[in-house]
Fold each of these.
Amino acid sequence: MTKRVEKGILEDRFLVHRTTSDIDDYEVTRIKNSNSRDSNQNNERLPLLHSPSITSNMELSDNHQLTSYDTDIVDEEYIDIVKQAERAIDGGILPVRIAAGSSGSYFVRNLEGKTIGVFKPKDEEPYGRFNPKWTKWLHKTLCPCCFGRGCLIPNQGYLSEAGASIIDTKLGLNIVPKTHVVRLAAASFNYPAYQRHLITAKHEINQSVSRHIHGRRVFRPKGLPRKIGSLQLFVENYVDADVFLKLIGQNPLPDEAMNKFQRQFEKMVVLDYIIRNTDRNNSNWLVKYDVKTNNERDKLLHGLSNPLYQSEQQIDNINENDTSKADDVVITNEIHIAAIDNGLAFPFKHPDEWRAYPFHWAWLQFAKIPFSEEIKSLILPSLSDMNYVQHEICDDIQRLFSQDKHYDRRLVERQLSVIRGQILNLAQAMRDGKSPFQLVQMPGVVVERQYADITPERKHFKQKFHDRYPIFSCC
């Protein structure tokens, strides 16, 4: 069990701004472990909320109120992709089921047959009612003791996919392909047999009636019901990380390219750690490496192509130096990471049963390098601002999760507590100059939002350390 000792409200300089508005007030409380075994553990488990560098920006605004989730997508490019998918389905170009994986996920195509997205219906997730893959059904039937992941809410992978995209956007990481929750219907999806037979029977009855009484029908024409799920935009020209890592192990990239890869790798670390991804391995993140060459002579000619900027002397100089300029080539390396398959994230507690679900990237050599100043300057300002963490990140995640018909506010609040704790650890690790490998060695923290005992109308944060660990820590 997790043990904790309440230390009381922090000093006035750490108290959160109190308001007279209709929202709950917040106060910050720190909890520290009472059963640390030695001084090293005590030092490692010092309460992070006590740090002035963290609490200096923890005053919450006094006019915030959680609004309902807006299901309307405002991204015009994404909306166009959804419309292309719907037109293709209406035109008979159906989504294609992906053979790999343990769930019913589909490649969505446009009218030209080009893959434009990956759709993952909620009811076809690994333990969904209509999962077409028999492996998980056998797993559930024959081995119920190992059924699912005890730290995750079942059948919410589609929300996890969209939630990862929200975190990616809020922090400016740009490594998660745009993902939203949408509703699609297609005959290639896995529907129960009775629904297909019922629709077929209604259609045949309407046709029979229409033959005898022109223009009349018994049933309103209605197709298969739409399925709710996540639609992630498809990325092209990427390779599996496994393949890429083997290639650079045999033929190392130039230093400039490796530095860019390190920055992208650190962004993935930030994402996975905040959402506590329980399924990140080297087969579910992708890498794209582009080498571009720019001829200096061509660039110069392009700049002088406008007659207003040309002179006879300039043209003569270009002709005289034709050979030397043609050999002057600039090579630029562009490298990008795509963090896909984020459906097994956002746990409501740290893994503490059979498996630890470690981050497999922690065993790579890139994880031994401390976080760069570039990533710190990008991430730390947002993570150090409690207003931003609570109102821009946690509240948006809560609004997203609230659209599920099995929404449980208590469980979602526990998920947010894990997110806050992960953010707290990550910010502290960056300030201390730690590496991703050192980050994952830090004890798990949960920052809860609870009502105060004396004034029930107020809420405050409590920090506690995670003392219970899974039996197997390597898998």
Amino acid sequence: MKKLYFLFLASLLALNANSQASFCEDFELYSNGTPIAETSKNWNTWGELMPPYAIAPFIDDANVVTPPVSPGTNSLYLNDATGAGGPQDVVLMFDTTQNIISTTPLSTPYTTGSLDFSQMMYIIPGKTGYFNFQAENEPGISWALEVNFDAIGGIIMSNTSATTFNCTYPAAGTWFEIAFDIDLSNNIWEVFIDGVSQGSFSNSINQIASLDLYPGVSSEYYVDDVCYSYDTTQIVLPGLDLAVSNIGAISGLDGQNRDVTVEVTNFGINPVTSFDIDFLYNGNTITDNILGLNLGTGAITTVTITNPITLVNGTYTGIATVSNVNGIMIDDNPSNDTSSIQIISITPTPGKLVVGEQSTGTPCFGCPRGIVAANEMERDYNGYFQSISIHTESGDPMKAIDYSNGLNNYITGPPGPPSLASIGNPPDPGLQQGALVDRGTEIDPSAFRDHFLSKIISPVSAIFTADANATGNVIDVQITTTVTSAINGDWKFACVLIEDSVTGTGGSWYQANKYGDLGISLIDVDGTDWGVLPSWVPSMIYRNVSREILPSFEGGLLPNGSYNVGDVFTQDFQFTADPTWDINSMYVVGMLLNPNGIVDNAVYSPVSIATYVENVSSTTSFNIYPNPAVSTTTLLINLDTEKEVSISVKSVEGKLITKGEYGTMIGSHSLTFDVSDFANGVYIIEAIVGNEVIVKKFIKE
């Protein structure tokens, strides 16, 4: 890659006398297999710069190699060799002083002036990439910015102080350049991919000291032509400059609606009072007019586009554009008026329900991460993903002993606590992770989404109907299985009883929270930041709490050893609820397990409770059709005597969606409900007929 290298050097010659530091590394002076930090005067390893200050040869060094795909001779190779990230971890200080040791006086970290940085990258297909900028000379104190490359062309940038920025890169298996034009004096960080601006943002940690190259989990990539230049010259801002600084990441399932959030920043001198914003997706443009603002220099506002977009199967580009700023169609810097993201939508396997099980506990300081992850999944994939929280910690009043003992054979423990010295991708590499998706390999719960998206398109061997009814504290469950692909061997089935929205009083019910202890931002779906909550959070509402699993964590063998396509069989389970549990907030999840213990498919059903004051069977009949429903569902009521009738439709969480009062009725009546706008999933219909309460469920597809 000599050509790019010399072009960069030529640009350095044009810098004015205020230039303080510049450097470019193309790795051409080294032999294949050379460890870069041990050999170069400009590179260090992470361990070399941190106590106890490692000496060569370094276990976290990275080798120069001659890759088969490089247009040049040499590149630097980084690969996750542990399955949890690392051990390679090399640092390039943005100071040209050579042979740096921990006590070397440096001009970094930079807090004013401008820094230009660029490097070429090649990510192996199917793998990921990662690097970060350190904010202090000693690594591990503060991450100015983390840059994560997923395997499908997405880039997510963030730090521990809630800075976020998303963009895209060319497909894996292609060399591309990522560059940053960082104006520290005005806190403007602009990102370029192959020379094209991806947008600008303000960084809550607006200082920089070094580059850290570290292979995160599943990372494998090459780096070449690593260049930087620092200049103390102050940059004069334009008069009117409104930029699209970020677009919230969007993904999901075909047909789902998604809100679009766009962050815009005033990088100009003049206040911004109004602007228009367009969002283009799948050939459709949504335009909003934003009025009544007073954004000063550096001020940020986030716009949620009025109308959501409907996802279409496949990968499409979403483009946000600002215009008509203060009534002027084009501002003084149009290069940052537009930004784009890749929006990926997939079509789920019909009838597929993915199960996420996670170890948690009130004394678990890292578990807020799992709480937030589960809440996000319920918000975005309700009816397709089912979260189960298994309280495994001693002293936790919700501990499910049998379930906990079974889960602990598959995991290292509940999610490990965060620390300022272990922020990475995924969070806290090397610590306990504590979650499973469909009983696959252990993951951190923050990875629920990625694993769900791979599982929801998996073929299934069966689909189900389920019914759960409570009489007193006894809950009878009947699950009917229809085989869709031949089943042979030691297939098993397990049924879980779950209680939602569990509360309690006293210190044992407080949730431990290391995020609040360290001030690390962790935003929940309702906007709550765990980073500002106390280290022990009272008044918690615990979601999806496992109470019991039958017959065991591993499940019980199916009635027969083999089934053909079209075969139907039924299994019965019976739970006895503790008197302290709220049966009104309970539901069951059935899981079909293949011979390897992997969840093939699952089914959900709320627990129904019917209170009979009269003999319902002789005076009242109540049916729902069609069920499942697509656009409408009809309630057929037949009353032998006059009765007052009211009908409520609720979510499975008990939230009232609609209610109708029908007065006194007798005879046969058909009541039709429009459910076309309902999200796919399970709903509850509660009919109050005279003194009777009848509860039924229906499925919206």
Amino acid sequence: MSEVTEIKPRFYFVATGKGISKVSPLNALDNALRDAGIAHLNIVKVTSILPAEIEERNDISLEPGSIAFAVLAQELGKGGEIISAGIAWAHGKPYGYIMEAHGKKGAEEIRANLERMIKEVASFSGLKLNEPRFRIEQLKVPRDFYGAVIAALVFKT
């Protein structure tokens, strides 16, 4: 049987951003990542478990080109659309949870979705979760532009 490498993060930070571009949706996404302060990272999307002993730190610095694991919500849009992306996270025992939501809808609807999602996961999993926290980014994409919004919980080992 082969061994699996265990990578357990000790810290995390939360980042949100929005961006626009006249050139492409990808450029808008790059601008949203830049606005969030994480465009210099190679982001690997992971699922939604928050280790019990993890600590939130806002002073985390990662070198350009670093591979960073993150729970990421993103939405792309075009001129005239309202787009939003958000995350909710709650510490808990034996571990916490992170949920993400996105869509061509406003921040209020995204938050309501996240509230329902985190309540359901707590109910079905039997986890004892603390009060959830939320970060949501919304953008009304200007006419003749592409737009992007992101919300990410980024891990650091």
Amino acid sequence: MTALAATYLLSTEAKAGKYDLDLAALGEVQDDGTVTQRNQDFRSLASEVGVLMAPKPVDPADSLGLSGFAISADVTINTLGGDEAYWQDTSRGADNVAPTLQVMGRKGLWPGIELGAGATHLFDSRMWTISGYGKIALHEGFHHMPIPSIAIRGMFSRLLGARDLDMTTVSADISISHVFGVGKTFSITPYGGYQALMVFARTGILDATPGHDEYADGPLACDNGDADCTVQSEFVFRQQDVIVRHRPFVGARFIFSVLRIGIEAMFVPGGGSTSDVTLIGGGLETVTDQSGFQQQYTISLGLDF
């Protein structure tokens, strides 16, 4: 039984990617067998993962119109705090840069409404998010006058493929843009905007002693002499107060006939939101999001019908 368990653990480790997170590493077993949780590191890590996996606009303020439909694939180069302890201890050697792929379908409705759905994947991991959005163009269509289009948009995503992390993101943004036509089939649309991103994260039950099989090996004695510390080594990161990140963005969309090419840059200041966390055994700890400044550079290729 022990050999089978060891073989399973080794095969799981071998298949795991660089960014498949092991959040049990954020629990430290004490001499009496209890676990001290690194709540601040969990908040900071969840904040950066939320920025990586949340959907990106990659689109100007103008809606597609009632008959419009578009599909695109977007590759993003993201920066992260790969040298921080919360990445190094939970990943398999995180870098300071990680690529993601977003695929998105968009459909225009009347009047000035647009809906979309898609998915985002973090390379070298099993993590995906499924996402959707709704956009309302408050002001659009004045393409032959120096008047910008204005839109508001709401987006959401749900994380899949993460063994330990349960995460949902919600965002709201406002953007402005203006279409510049070049001939009859080519147009350039620069745009800019601001997005408020909210991250909700928690975990399931984590085991701070994953190498010990209680069924096969029996109880695990505590360093202080207690007979069984196995149950005490299990812990959970409950959902903290919402994590808020600010994502201003600029970009441009180029359309030639039905081909669309987009570029976008997002500049995300470091986190600073706080939360009070109830500690094991009682008491409160105030933790602060210590995530760093992140950048996201996207190139998009798609079709616009």
